[in-house]
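Re: export button greyed out
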Amino acid sequence: MNRNRNLIIGGSLVVAIALLGVGQATLEGVALSQTVRAPIFEIDPFWPKPLPNGWIYGTVIGVTVDAQDHVYIVHRGVQGAEAGADQNPPLAECCSSAPPVLEFDADGNMVRAWGGPSETEEYVWPASNHGLGVDQMGNIWIGGNGGGDSHVLKFSQQGEYLSTYGEPRNAPNSSATNHFGRVADIEFDFAANEAYFADGYANKRVAIVDIDSGEIKRTWGAYGNTPDDSYQYVGERRAGTGWSADDYEEQQFRTPVHCAEPSNDGLVYVCDRPNNRVQVFQTDGTYVREAYYAPETLGDGAIWDIAFSPDPEQSFIYVADGKNARIRIIDRQSMEEVSTIGTGGRYAGMFQAVHSIDTDSQGNIYATETYEGRRLHKFVYKGIGDAARHQGATWPSRN
Amino acid sequence: MRLTVGRAAAALLVGLTAGCGGIEDGQVPTFEVDAFWPMPLDYPNILGPVSGLTVAPDGNVLIVTRQDGFSRANEVNVVTETGTCCSPTKAVVEYAPDGSLVREWGEPNQDYPWPNRPHAIAVDPDGNIWIGGGVATAGRGGRGGRGGGAAQPGPTVDSHILKFSREGQHLMTIGGVGETPSNQNANGFGGAAGFSFDAGANEVFVADGYANNRVAVLDMSTGELKRSWGAYGNTPDDADQEPYDAGAAPAQQFRTVTCAELSDDGLVYVCDRGNNRIQVFQTDGTFVSEAVLAPSTLGSGSVGDIAFSPDRDQHFLYVADGMNERVAILVRSSLEFQTSFGVGGRYPGHFRQLGSVAVDADGNVYTAENGQGRRVQKFVNLGNGMITAEHQGALYPGDKR
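Workaround output, generated via the alternate export path:
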């Protein structure tokens, strides 16, 4: 088996220095003293504009950008006292849970809001919304990672229900041909008329689906292996064991398989989230290579979502690492991490569980946060320049 | 006097003129949020829930944060050795006016009894730091519980107050540790939620608090309880209270006392948070006036904290309303509501569990968010102007609104 392993500086260096007993602060100090050539970003703290109707988001667990640079998110809504205006009786004038799908124009104006369970039971809304994609017709596809979410829903841009792909309410099964297993994200290869499902939170596969019929055309697992739900992982993924994903080359994806993104040169990049790796395939599932980032990351893992820079070569991959509160900037050719943006926190440009990521035609990055972050951020692309190894909160310089 | 302010007096924004000199009729301070204050902490440090806020006389901004609200798996994973971000700061964080970090200190397991749930921070006339506590039980806690029935005050109510030097050296513990809260207890408090100081009388006014229902006045040097009072100056009692009802007769006891702020002209402004009202007293506890803010508010209530504008007359009163997620601006003399700013959310100028408000000498307003908000935010004073919008929403810079 051709294992084109790629050990990446960031995570490995952290381990090495930690073993030497050098603290994080020193490591950061070293890193900050170096500059690299990398895309430069600046957070826009005032994008998007405040929502109407006293609306707030819950966990924002999907983002996608359409051909007009409109930005769509899906979130899980807000329950309890935080949605005080929704309670009976209302607790306060603040706040009210926004509808699950929101569309923003490039200026940050909210232009549409829709979604939620069907009043006529025409479709089965996901038990737990998760991930969305927009196809070449402008239709919105929505996955789900809750119990019984074995299907994907398709809506028009206006939120009109169109189709269900895969039968809902089936138990997970990575061999199933008529349903999915909690699809985490949806992307498209428009030339081939195919949708790529990251399948998912329960299944261990990439599923390629005909855009029009929703039929599963092919699937594959890690290294292109046949997906196998009975696979026994080699490594003991637990704190205190010294586990590092790159020591094991696990032969199946760990759930969740959190993204599957076709590039414009015929490759597919898969987020094997808890294995802390990106695996690269040809569109027929032939394994090409892999790269690990922060390989010792436990819990939710390091590889949550990826997006490509919009230049013709798609020179950079942006990896949302929700566990380590950074977006990793990866050179797509070498798969080496060149810089990161973001840091932990609740202020502009800081993350609590950065979850989903996409880019627009101008190279701007949109990133969302789940858990208690609950925002959609816009990072404005400022061109290639000299960047710190870790750019941090990407605030504008104050003059 | 009983003023009810709320959704009534909405009108149009008719213009904005920079104020100078005296405050003209109808003018209010205007603000915009500074999205880039304070400066980022070094990776991987993050703030916990910000449960207290004050501006020191030198303009530095001090906050106290709770360490009990973190998700170990998803947030402080350095602690659990599962990731590289993040780690909590120590409990007290001090920022310079430019937003740079000056120092951090305060944590459990030192030579002082750190509160289970620190709340409130204040700087006394000698420059020392006072820190209170709260109720670390599930739910609302205290006899002032609303909707969930009476909670059980227990050993997790912080019954003491800590005094430190500005640098964090422990100076004094006031009140017994682990006392059962009672309004009759002369040697313990029930979640001391706010402090202000009367240098002339050498007294400290304690908002007491989350579990008790009184203002407690202490000798600033000894910490000895000199007097206390309840709503309308009544003797505070420990009786269980009915859930808040906007239509009921005004409660004769405080529900939760979260601030007790002394004005320059010798009045004490008390936040009766759970009753959605401000009550004003003379320093001897004589009742003067009250105002109800957003009276239909349930949950934890609308009057969480108060700060005064820094002009000579302390003309304006800022009220942190954490249920409606906005800062209300009142005229202090009349307690009339003028306008509010802020909106629910997690972006700059938005609030999630707004709990505290403070003002610096230039009139800039700082806010602190508890719970999942976890920020201290700065609103830059742009001078007085005519604002007739009842609720201004998020105060983005002019070109972003």
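The radius of gyration of chain B is 20 Å. The button fix ships in the next patch.
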